[in-house]
Amino acid sequence: MFRQSTDKRVAVFVANGLEEIEGLTVVDLLFRAGIPTDTVSITPERTVTSSHQVTITCDRSIADEGFSFDDYDMLVLPGGMPGTLNLKACEPLTAAVMAFDQAGKGVAAICAAPSILAELGILTNRPATSNPNFQHVLVENGAILSEEPAVVDSNVITSKGMATAIPFGLEIVRWFLGDAAVEDLKPRIVLEH
Predict the structure, then answer these.
(1) Residues β-bridged to residue 23
(2) Where do the DJ-1/PfpI domain residues begin and end (predicted)?
(3) Disulfide engineering: 134 pairs with which of 65, 67, 115, 171, CB 3.0-4.6 Å?
C-alpha cells in the first residue's frame, strides 16, 4: 500500500533500450518511501522495451496532453544502451534537465546517463560518477570524478550502474526526506550494513 510522505513528485524517464533495473529500482524505493513517482515514456508510446527485452508500461508519456515537466521536483535518467542515446536525443527532456539544474531542482542520472549531464555542462566543476565506460565523458566536460557508488552535489545525484541502483535510489529518498527516512527504509529492503 502506498502511503504518501511528501507532496514532491519524481519523474523517471523511460526510453527504449534502458537498463530496467536502474529505472525500476528507483521507482520501487521511492514507492516504499512514500514519494509519488511516475514512469514517463519519452515517445508517444507508453510501452517501452528495455535493453534486455523487458517490456515496461509507463504511467505517462511526454507526448500526453497536459504533460508538463513543471509537475515534477526531480527528473531521473536511467542508463542502458541505446536508452541513454535515446534520452540524449529527446530535446524536450534535455531542455528540461538544463532548466531544472539552473533552478536548483533535482536532477539524477545513473550508469551511462550522467554523460548526458556532462555534455549539457551540468557537471562542470562538480563531483560526479558514472559507468566506468563513460567516465572519460565526465572528465572531458570538467566533472570532478568520484569513485563513490552514488554522488550527491547540491541538486544533482549521479551513480555508476545497475549494482549501485539501490544506493542511488536511497540518495534520492534522502534528498527529499532526509536521513531518518533512509534508515527506516534499509531494514524494509533487507539492506545489510
Answers:
(1) none
(2) 8-174
(3) 115
Give the closest residue to 33 by CA, choosing from 74, 4, 76.
4
Q: pTM for this structure?
A: 0.97
> Which domain range does residue 34 map to?
10-180
C-alpha–C-alpha distance, residues 173 and 141, integer Å: 28
pLDDT digits (tens, 9 = 90+) for 8-44: 999 999 999 999 999 999 999 999 999 999 999 999 9
Q: Is 1 a member of any domain?
A: no
Q: Which pLDDT tens digit goes with each residue over 112-146?
A: 999 999 999 999 999 999 999 999 999 999 999 99
Q: Helices 20-33 & 165-177, crossing angle to 10 degrees?
A: 30
Find how far residue 133's CA is from the centre of its chain: 18
User: Residue 135: which residues within 8 A CB-CB, separation 6 or more?
Assistant: 129, 145
Domain CATH for 63: 3.40.50.880
Residue from 1, 57, 6 nearest 32 by CA = 1
Count of domains for the chain: 1
Q: What angle do CA 148, 121, 79 make, to 5 degrees?
A: 50
| Cα–Cα distance measured from residue 160 to residue 63, given in angstroms and rounded to the nearest whole number | 29
